[in-house]
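Thought: the user wants the 3D structure for the chain below. I'll pass the sequence to the structure tool as-is, report back what it returns, then summarize two notable features.
Action: structure_tool
Action Input:
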Amino acid sequence: MMLSVKDGLAADTSSPRSQTTVAYEAIRSDILNGRHIPEKRLKIQELVEELGVSPGAVREALSRLVPEALVVSRDQRGFVVAPLSVSDLQDLTDVRCEIETLALRRSLARGDENWEANIIAAEHRLRSKTAATGGQDQRLKWTRNHAAFHAALISACESPRLLALHAQLYEQSERYRQLTFDLESDRNVDVEHRKIVEIALKRDADGLVGAMVKHLRKTTELIVEAFGQNTKGD
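Observation:
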């Protein structure tokens, strides 16, 4: 069973602003966790009934998701969930590697002892608490811990715009990475994460960038493989 923001959201929806926020967060969450699949038509009335908000709030929420590349507005079809493709994934990975490189170098140069402690703690939580291959609850916990780990690494870059761009690219990548959850692989992600932390603590900027780029591109390789397997079943 897919979980959504709306399942645990206790917000006052009496004002238009609150209704839009509820709709935006719920729809966004359902796209990122795969409940709304790629190219699914997002029907206004269905979302109104499901979320208990006004049609205007749903339309505004969907419009806010368009510049985030999570929703596409199409003539005559209204709003649909943004499609996934190998070419888009490869472009996304290239851009993400560039942003990761910049953010990691800045963070490594500016990070203090608190930054070091935070990345150690984030890696420990990611490794010891949950597994990406478990049930839905475990996957959601792992996903949150994984996001926190990558955010911790670049948290000292001292650039709000860079942090925001990094977060946006990361979340767009998450839609693709879900395809690898059930894919058999001998990859040991825990070892990769631990190595990244060890290099970061050594303050080896070139080594850290190299390890991270390799880590991201390995994920992309597995996703492309997953695309191929899914296509064979069509």
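Final Answer: Structure generated. The two ends are 24 Å apart (CA to CA). Residues 88 and 173 are 10 Å apart (CA to CA).
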